[in-house]
Write a structure and sequence with these properties.
The complex is a heterotrimer.
Chain A: H1 2-37, H2 44-60, H3 65-91, H4 97-120, E1 134-137, E2 140-143, H5 144-166, H6 168-178, H7 180-185, H8 190-216, H9 222-237, H10 242-259, H11 268-282
Antiparallel strand pairs in A: 1-2
Helix pairs in contact in A: 1-5, 1-8, 1-9, 1-10, 2-3, 2-4, 2-8, 2-9, 3-8, 5-6, 6-8, 9-10, 9-11, 10-11
Chain B: H1 4-30, H2 34-59, H3 67-84, H4 88-110, H5 115-134, E1 152-155, E2 158-161, H6 165-187, H7 190-207, H8 213-238, H9 248-261, H10 267-284, H11 290-304, H12 308-323
Antiparallel strand pairs in B: 1-2
Helix pairs in contact in B: 1-6, 1-12, 2-6, 2-8, 2-9, 2-10, 3-4, 3-8, 4-8, 6-8, 9-10, 9-12
Chain C: E1 6-17, E2 20-31, E3 34-39, H1 46-54, E4 61-66, E5 69-70, H2 76-82, E6 84-86, H3 99-107, H4 124-136, H5 152-164, E7 170-174, H6 182-196, E8 200-204, H7 208-214, E9 217-222, E10 225-230, H8 232-237, H9 239-244
Parallel strand pairs in C: 3-8, 3-9, 6-7, 7-8
Antiparallel strand pairs in C: 1-2, 1-4, 4-5, 9-10
Classes of the chains: A mainly alpha, B mainly alpha, C alpha/beta.
């Protein structure tokens, strides 16, 4: 019994966790954008892909993986900022802004996805893991890169949470999200805050892309494939809830990796999506959501 | 009946009808295949777009997975034609009935939520279904099903060969036209008013005496039926079906055509579909990257003309009316 | 309907939110026709009481009886069918529909459900009622305009028209003069008075002067309980009521 725990489940659990952190990073971006900005970002997956593609190109030019981790999100910030400021804010004042922003970001995703095809081609690219080798944990060998992912991801997630809830900047963002007019009259540059928040959210997605590229490989439709998982995490956790995104992220990636022991991998995606549909049917506000209802 | 929007709608109806007739006459005379088939395909996807518009523009529910029902209709149609009988009438009727049942079941899943959640549920449902179909051997898995026979359609005027592009174009035009008229009929009833009321202020509806659940479910099932019947025509035209028909790009494209043509007008989406399909095939001669162009156009429309072409036309007629000084004295 | 028939009876209504008792064992009777009002200082529980009567909240205990019928747990559509209608504090119209469409939808409940599927022009009852309301509320010129494009005064009239479209026996009005100017308040008061001559109106209000001038009966609430009940004169003279409104002019 203990042996199966060690040799069969432990690897799956660790694998699930290593992917889970990247999924959480992506879901965090989504939930921040929705929770704070009330925008459903259908192009979030494409920013994830952007992160992966840009890091691939940078590394091909000789830039180290570690520098990429830093540069890529930085590069995505102005793009996200511009997108929010120039496009999303244009439709924000409409009554049906939920649908309009959804449609708008959907349009952006179309443009981005095709751009990747043009620039990098349709074939998958698999960058090599920056950390090679494996280490022993609980008597089982794990790839070092995955162990790194878990650790680094956990630190990142904690940092994001701290940034939003424990810093002055985070307080400003939350204030602007909660009451736009009041914040504005208090001197907070609301529009800039919104744009920065969006930029931050998509930068997180891009970072997730950089981190997962060596595991999943990089191709133009990778965003579309991954976005449903991210949305599922956000919904199950509760739209706008960071804690929810973390817990749901862990639960769902664990569900996925452990279920792959019993069912063919093609069914694990439908399994996850079914969870989302069930949650939407019976508890649409998710585990920790509740403020934002459709 | 004289308001700017109905004028815009009437204009588009006539535009499409007349263009269709011209295309049919000239196309048949010149023995054209390409343009007639392209037009037929655009009408078929126009039906899907109408289905999306009924939910989005009339009731106020954005469905991001309507391709599920379109694909259902297509697959069922292919199965019936191949395994049961290559009969047009039988297929259409069976697909209509089966889709109503499917719609009824799906409504219990989808209508639990609204707004953004509804969009995500419909998205998820379609993704799951597409994956399932993709992996189902008996439905041809990723290759889909081929070998759908060309129909000979019985009519009181004699047998028609659906293989003739002109013939099938007219048949499709009639089917989509009938679907359009059915939807327009319901819009002219109090049920249609309920739909508008739900889109405008769902919570108030109970306080004027009606639960919103019934009208929503009715619209949902109707939309599923329209999508499925449109889908049923697809294998008749192309001779095959594949899981791609259920993919998000099909649902997404439908939404684009709705916004492009004019959300809430029903005929606008058909116009949008015609334009988009033609546009795609023109761009395809230069590059396979039509998504960028379509995406860009879409973004521009959402920002500057969210009511689409029909909306622009409506504005034009509205200006005309006010220039006439009060129009028909309705002011 | 006789003037003194009891049309609404509240029996021991109680509603708690967590530890807070918002409405505490409130009972009263409203007789038909005329305007009856519920007043009370802030936090008295008027709004909660209103929501209990209109079905927005369910009481923890107690009954709401409309013309003898138990509607305590009935949902809004059922209450409307029984004859109880409510208006909304913030105008809650179908903003992107025209005035006449608003009224037709509001009147549709007068028809049988079969008519939902027949062409609109077969719903003669609803159409005629809508036209009637257009005249009664002087909205005829605005008939094809979108409800969202009306002036404030027109929207308020439309709101009332929508609420009484099905000819309810009892009309619940929730602070109808909230945030209004003097002139508007006067106009609305006139409207309410006219309504009261044909149906029973129950008003929840802050404006004590308005209430005293309009009502045949007043119920005063304080801290979730009924403090006093009677004619405006009786209530005004009650020392408990005066104390509750300490500092406010009742005369």
């Amino acid at each position: 019994m203990l042996e199966s725990l060690q040799y069969i489940f432990a690897p799956q659990i660790i694998n699930g966790l290593s992917i889970g952190v990247a999924v959480i990073l992506m879901a965090l971006g989504l939930t921040i954008i929705f929770g704070l900005l009330d925008v459903i970002n259908m192009s979030h997956g494409e920013f994830y892909a952007a992160g992966a593609f840009i890091s691939v190109s940078l590394m091909a030019m000789g830039v180290s993986f570690w520098l990429c981790l830093f540069l890529v999100p930085l590069f995505l910030v102005p793009i996200g900022f511009a997108m929010e400021r120039l496009l999303i804010q244009k439709v924000f004042h409409y009554k049906d802004r939920h649908i309009l922003t959804l449609l708008l970001t959907f349009g952006v995703s179309m443009v981005l996805e095709d751009s990747y095809k043009i620039i990098w081609g349709a074939n998958p690219i698999k960058p090599s893991a920056p950390i090679s080798g494996a280490s022993e944990l609980f008597g089982v060998m794990f790839p070092n890169y995955r162990l790194f992912l878990m650790g680094f991801g956990a630190i990142l997630i904690f940092s994001v949470w701290a940034l939003i809830y424990k810093t002055q900047l985070g307080a400003i963002v939350r204030a602007a999200a909660y009451d736009k007019d009041m914040s504005s009259s208090l001197g907070i540059p609301v529009r800039r805050v919104y744009a920065l928040t969006f930029a931050f959210g998509v930068a997180l997605a891009g970072l997730a892309g950089v981190l997962l590229a060596p595991i999943y490989s990089v191709f133009p439709t990778m965003g579309r494939d991954f976005i449903l998982m991210a949305f599922t995490v956000v919904i199950v956790g509760g739209l706008g809830s960071i804690k929810g995104a973390v817990i749901a992220g862990i639960l769902l990636t664990q569900l996925q990796s452990i279920s792959s022991l019993y069912i063919s991998p093609v069914w694990s995606d439908p399994l996850v999506f079914t969870v989302m549909v069930l949650v939407l049917m019976f508890k649409p506000s998710g585990l920790y959501g509740g403020m934002k209802n459709a | 009946m004289h308001n700017p929007q109905s004028k815009a709608i009437r204009f588009i109806e006539l535009l499409l009808l007349i263009s269709a007739l011209i295309l049919f006459v000239i196309g048949t005379a010149l023995g054209d295949t390409f343009f007639l088939r392209l037009a037929t395909e655009s009408l078929i996807f126009g039906g899907l777009a109408m289905s999306v518009d009924l939910l989005l523009g009339i009731v106020g529910l954005l469905s991001l997975g309507q391709a599920l029902y379109f694909g259902f209709g297509a697959y069922l149609s292919a199965l019936i034609l191949k395994e049961i009988s290559p009969s047009f009438g039988l297929t259409i009727v069976m697909v209509a009935i089966a889709s109503i049942a499917l719609g009824w079941v799906a409504s219990f899943i989808a209508l639990r939520s609204k707004g953004v959640y509804f969009a995500l549920i419909t998205f998820g449902l379609a993704q799951v279904a597409a994956k399932v179909v993709y992996n189902t051997r008996s439905l041809g898995a990723s290759d889909g099903m081929i070998g759908v026979p060309i129909l000979r359609i019985w009519t009181p005027f004699g047998e028609l060969d659906a293989g003739q592009p002109g013939t099938f174009f007219v048949i499709t035009l009639i089917i989509i036209g009938v679907l359009y008229l059915v939807l327009k009929y319901f819009l002219s009833t109090p049920m249609g008013s309920m739909w508008h009321a739900i889109r405008s202020n769902e919570d108030r509806l109970a306080y004027v005496g009606y639960k919103s659940k019934g009208p929503k479910q009715f619209a949902f099932i109707l939309a599923v039926m329209v999508a499925a019947v449109s889908g049923a025509l697809y294998p008749m035209l192309r001779g095959f079906v594949s899981p791609e028909l259920m993919f998000f790009s099909v649902s997404g494209n439908a939404v684009v055509t709705v916004v492009l043509g004019g959300v809430g007008t029903l005929i606008g989406p058909i116009l949008g579909s015609v334009l988009l399909t033609s546009f795609k095939s023109i761009i395809a001669t230069w590059t396979s990257h039509h998504h960028i162009v379509i995406g860009l156009i879409f973004i521009v429309i959402v920002i500057s003309a969210p009511k689409g072409l029909a909306g622009l036309l409506t504005k034009y007629y509205g200006k005309q009316d006010s220039r006439k000084g009060g129009g028909d004295g309705n002011e | 309907m006789e003037m003194n028939d009891v049309i609404l009876r509240a029996v021991n209504l109680t509603k708690k939110f967590g530890g807070l008792v918002a409405v505490d064992g409130v009972s009263f009777e409203i007789t038909s026709l005329g305007v009856s009002s519920v007043i009370g200082p802030n936090g008295a529980g008027k709004s909660t009481l209103f929501n209990l009567l209109s079905g927005t909240f369910l009481p923890d205990s107690g009954l709401v009886l409309l013309d003898g019928l138990d509607v305590t747990r009935a949902n809004p559509e059922q209450r409307l069918a029984a004859g109880m209608a409510r208006s909304f504090q913030i105008t809650n119209l179908f903003f992107d529909l025209s005035v006449v469409d608003n009224l037709r939808i509001a009147s549709q409940a007068l028809e049988s459900n079969v008519n939902l599927f027949l062409p609109l022009n077969k719903s003669r009852i609803a159409i005629d009622r809508a036209d009637e309301l257009l005249d009664e509320f002087e909205l005829h010129e605005a008939r094809d305009r979108l409800a969202g494009a009306l002036s404030h005064g027109q929207q308020r009239r439309l709101e009332i028209a929508v609420t009484i479209a099905t000819r309810p026996k009892l009309l619940l009005l929730d602070e109808p003069t909230q945030g209004m100017s003097q002139a508007d308040t006067q106009e609305t008061a006139e409207l309410i008075k006219q309504l009261g001559s044909k149906i029973t109106v129950l008003l929840i209000e802050h404006d004590v002067d308005l209430v005293m001038n309009l009502s045949k009966a007043v119920i005063v609430m304080a801290q979730g309980r009924k403090l006093s009940e009677g004619s405006p004169a009786e209530v005004r003279a009650n020392p408990l009521v005066q104390a509750a409104y300490f500092g406010e002019e009742l005369a």
